[in-house]
Amino acid sequence: MKKTKITTLLELLNSISENVPQVLEVQGSLLSPHSITLPEGYQLNGKNNESCIVSFNNSDGFGVTRNNTISNLTVMTKQTNRAIYTVCGIPDMGNLVFENLQITGQVSVISRQGTDRINLYGNNIHITSCDSRHYSEQPQKYGVNVYQGAMTVYNFNSDPNSQIDCKLTNISIGVKNAPVIGSGIFVCGFGDEGGKVNLESLTTGAVYSNGMLPYGTADIITAAVFIVYGVEAKIVEHHDEIVTYGVNDMVLDTWGKVEKWISHRPVISYGPSGIGFVNFGTVKDFLAQDIITYGLGARGFNQYDGTVENIKFKSITTYGDGSIGIQVSKPIGNMIIEENVATYGSVGNSLVKGVIMELAANAVSIKSGGGIESLTVKGDIITHGDGVTSYALEGGEVKELNVGGKIIANGKNAKELLKDDDLE
Predict the structure, then answer these.
(1) For the purposes of burial, counting CB atoms within 10 Å of the CB of 260, is it exposed (0-12), middle (13-18) or buried (19 or more)?
(2) How many C-alpha atoms does 406 have within 13 Å on its Cβ side?
(3) Phi/psi at 395 (5° precision)
(4) What is the distance between the alpha carbons of residues 151 and 257, in angstroms, rounded to a whole number?
(5) Which pLDDT does position 352 carry in this prediction?
(6) What is the Cα–Cα distance from 356 to 388, expressed in whole angstroms?
(7) Burial of 177 (0-12, 13-18, 19+ CB in 10 A)
(8) What CA–CA distance (Å, rounded) separates 385 from 369?
(9) CA angle 238, 234, 180 (to 5 degrees)
(10) Which of left, alpha, beta for 72 (phi over 0: left; psi -120 to 50: alpha)?
(11) pLDDT tens string 117-176
């Protein structure tokens, strides 16, 4: 394949106008006043990813069409623009490869009507800054809309035969205390019916996100990592901390299907109603380290819909009023907590399926319709707030309970146990 060295914007545009597949090697720093579309078969590489930068000062960045590669580059747009995006109306976009990239702006791989196939490979991508709140394509279910993410893979084609196949490795989003705005990593199909996404693997470094939602918002959510409906994922794995900062910012969330989900570092939320891990989908195996939430109504783990077969945490700790440690509303399999389930809050407001409700910061809450085959807590189940319950069976069932430590309620008018017989 022809290889062309690129030192100026004019050379880049002239090479693209040839419309002959080639490797374009950027030698330094370029700035474009408008977006640039790569024709079929073009590869855009930096000579090295330290000094090779392409900036867009007034527009989106690179549009990709079919069988394109972008690698070893820094791509900079405004944080509200798309740094890399898919062009509409191409039936089969072939193989899209994004590798060794530093990004300001959104990476947006969206298939709309007229696009039936995308094979996406993304590796070693760090999106430092992005604001994805204003994009209008948003999934809707359970009374809420979801903001797109800095890294967005979205099959927005209603045709059930359309599919995105993707493998994403070593993706990191935002910077500690300087998160991206909106969601972090967002992978979504058209819906429960329609176009699908086959996610072979997603591995991440650190992810930091903030939805910037006003307190009291009940119909919009975000997540640091969101596996939405229409997605079947084989493995999702996090090698660094996953953190959210704002209102309704879930840390890990799924409405889809995940075979194995592993988090090797803490899962942390700071904002109100920021749940550590919330599951509306179907997960086979989930393994996490510490789940820590600080916000009002920010539960540690919540099983709303669907199920999980095997789930294991190192510990779950919540600090806010209304912040339940574990809440289960559907039947699940086996749950193990290696250390403690601890809550420090009392009674407070929390977002529940698009409605703000008052909840007590119970350590374990099994709601009507919920159940656990076996629950093992190797440490203590402990609450510190007033008017809460450490272990509450509220119409649900735990078939087998094993507690290595104690069930403790330290607050005023707090209870260690609440069973169905105690309910009015």
Answers:
(1) middle
(2) 5
(3) 100, -10
(4) 19
(5) 76
(6) 19
(7) exposed
(8) 26
(9) 40
(10) left
(11) 999 999 999 999 999 999 999 999 999 999 999 999 999 999 999 999 999 999 999 999
Q: Concatenated DSSP letters for 171-233? A: EEESBTTB-EESEEEEEE-SSSSS-EEEEEEEEEEEEEEE--PPTT--SEEEEEEEE-TTEEE
SS3 16: helix
Alpha carbons 45 and 68: distance in angstroms, whole number: 11
Determine the Cα–Cα distance for residues 21 and 313; give it in Å rounded to an integer: 50
Over the chain, what is the mean pLDDT?
A: 96
Q: Where do the structural domains in the chain lie, given as residue ranges? A: 2-212+222-342
CA distance linking residue 119 with residue 109, whole number of Å:
10
Number of Cβ within a 10 Å radius of residue 134: 9
Q: What is the pLDDT of residue 355?
A: 77
CA–CA gap between residue 127 and residue 9 (Å, rounded) = 24
Which candidate, 98, 97, 53, places its Cα nearest to that of 77? 53
Report the distance separating Cα 76 and Cα 71, nearest Å.
14
How far apart (Å, rounded) are the C-alpha atoms in residues 113 and 155?
9
Which ranges of 6-74 would DSSP assign to H, the alpha helix?
A: 9-17
Beta strands in 15-162 (DSSP E): 22-26, 29-32, 36-37, 43-46, 53-56, 62-64, 69-76, 82-86, 92-104, 106-111, 117-129, 140-141, 144-146, 149-155
**pLDDT at 422 > cutoff 70:** no
Distances in Å between the Cα of 385 and the Cα atoms of 5, 341, 344, 347 are 65, 14, 5, 8
- Please report where in the chains the tokens 């909840």 appear, as a residue: 359
Give dist(CA 368, CA 47) in Å, integer. Answer: 60
DSSP letter string over 58-90?
SS--EEE-SS-EEEEEEEE--TTSEEEEEPTT-
